[in-house]
Design brief:
The protein is mainly alpha-helical. Helix content is 76%, strand content 0%. It is built from ten helices and no strands. This is TetR/AcrR family transcriptional regulator. InterPro entries: Homeodomain-like_sf, HTH-type_TetR-like_transc_reg, Tet_transcr_reg_TetR-rel_C_sf. Keywords: DNA-binding, Transcription, Transcription regulation.
Length: 188
């Protein structure tokens, strides 16, 4: 009996995070996941759609876990740190091959870019809430969100890795540290 679709999708996500996806054909995927091609086509009808379905699932599930952590944090000032740290944790399992494949395959890069934009907007919302609660320094949340978006885009595009040698997850942790320490505390 073939595995349920959600289980197969979980296994695809794990495989892609570890090994990337561009060099794996449907036959390779079926062999690695010990299922038939027909079973894989229950996820989506083409290899390209299988890849995009798995990538969307990865980001959707990561977002759900991140937001659950943020919602569990009662301190509006700490929510920003929780959010950015959770983003770094969610991206940590992704290999360099996965990120390289994201960059090389335009539809996948588009999914990553859209999620980066959503994350930057969420940072702005968290800064606004933290400032309103008096838990963060009074800073321009739109500026912080825009600056974070630029850094996230540079991380996503590989510029930060090229300039610093940091993998994406480590770069997100460094960004979290920079932003949290920049907006926390007292006014200089």
């Amino acid at each position: 009996m073939p595995p349920p679709r959600h289980q197969l999708l979980d296994e695809l996500v794990e495989l892609f995070l570890t090994e990337g996806f561009l060099e794996l054909g449907v036959g390779d995927l079926a062999a690695r996941l010990r299922c038939s091609r027909t079973t894989l086509y229950q996820v989506a009808t083409t290899k390209e759609q299988i890849v995009l379905t798995a990538i969307r699932a990865f980001f959707r599930r990561a977002t759900e876990r991140i937001e659950a952590q943020v919602e569990a944090e009662p301190d509006p000032g700490a929510r920003l740190s929780v959010y950015l740290t959770a983003v770094a944790e969610e991206l940590a399992p992704a290999s360099e091959r996965f990120y390289a494949d994201l960059q090389a395959y335009a539809p996948a890069a588009g999914i990553y870019q859209a999620n980066t934009a959503l994350a930057a907007r969420r940072v702005g919302e968290l800064v606004t809430a933290g400032v309103a609660a008096g838990a963060l320094r009074p800073v321009d949340a739109a500026f912080v969100g825009a600056a974070v978006a630029q850094v996230m885009t540079a991380i996503q595009g590989g510029a930060i890795a090229a300039a610093s040698g940091l993998a994406d997850a480590a770069a997100y942790r460094a960004l979290a540290d920079l932003v949290v320490h920049g907006v926390g505390g007292s006014t200089p």
